[in-house]
Amino acid sequence: MADPSAPRQSGLLVLAIACAVFGGLAGALGTLAVQHQTGDRMVHDYIVNHPEVLPEAMDNLHHQEDTKALAGMRGELEHGWPGAVLGNPQGKQTLVEFTDYACTYCRRSVADVEQLTAARPDLKVVVRDLPILTPESTDAAKMALAAAAQGRYAAFHKAMFAIGHPDATTIAQAAATAGLDMTRARQTIADPATEAEIERNLEYARQLGFSGTPSWVAGGRLLSGAIGADGLAQALDSKG
User: Fold this and answer.
1) Are residues 106 and 18 in the same domain?
2) In this predicted model, what pLDDT tens digit does every residue of 155-207 receive, in sequence order?
3) Does residue 31 sit in the same domain as residue 100?
4) Domain of 25, in residue numbers
């Protein structure tokens, strides 16, 4: 005759084993949680006692984010519209500038770029026209691309910023100062490729998170604002 208490004893045994197993797991998880909390406390205490590591940590984080954003598109960025280049077109070191002719800070940066190109004969500055401030910004950008097609980009770029805010009159003045053939310029402006280039620059800026001008790609770093020649030089020399 079977012992009627056997199933009950067996069930109790299984329950006991399960409690032991899960109890051990819970204990292990509890130990890991304590270790995690202890590690967090150690990190916290180190940062409190060594606050100087924070800027370096943030810089490393930003560098990682910049590298991720540039992945797969840096080569395209550094080969812009033919002729839209300042400095040495064959330079081995490249600075990319996103600019708007209606931007006051871009105007201030003209001298910074000139300082850099004078000090660095091997520097190529690829300028990507990013007309986002006014309708006239687009008109000026298209004329700049037309100037590039005639090998007169640098002359127009400097003249446009020197004259002031872009409008029909100032754009025409800058084009005259740069010595453009206006018949050819109008043909370039009307070419769908010119509009496509501006749309491409707008898309690049969106992908990189640029919401204003000037913005820069320098030495693998993404920078915004008129940060000065020294800031640009430091970025160019950083590991990118």
Assistant:
1) no
2) 999 999 999 999 999 999 999 999 999 999 999 999 999 999 999 999 999 99
3) no
4) 1-45
Determine the residue type at 229.
A
91 and 154 in one domain? yes
CATH number at residue 187: 3.40.30.10
Which whole-number Å values give the CA distances from 67 to 70, 225, 240, in the listed order? 5, 19, 8
* Beta strands across the sheet bearing 123-129: 85-87, 123-129, 93-99, 215-218, 221-224
58 belongs to a structural domain:
no
Written as six digits, the tokens of 69 are 């954003």
Side-chain-side CA neighbours of 100 within 13 Å: the count stands at 25
Structurally, how many domains does the chain consist of? 2
* Geometric angle at alpha carbon 240, from 144 and 230, rounded to 5°: 65
Residue 221 has pLDDT above 50, yes or no: yes
Give the gyration radius of the chain's Cα atoms: 30
109 lies in some domain:
yes
pTM: 0.73
Q: Are 123 and 117 in contact (CB under 8 A)?
A: yes
Does residue 95 share a domain with residue 18?
no
Strand-pair category, 221-224 with 123-129: unpaired
Q: Are residues 127 and 194 in the same domain?
A: yes
Q: Is residue 206 part of a domain?
A: yes
Two tokens, residue 239? 């590991």
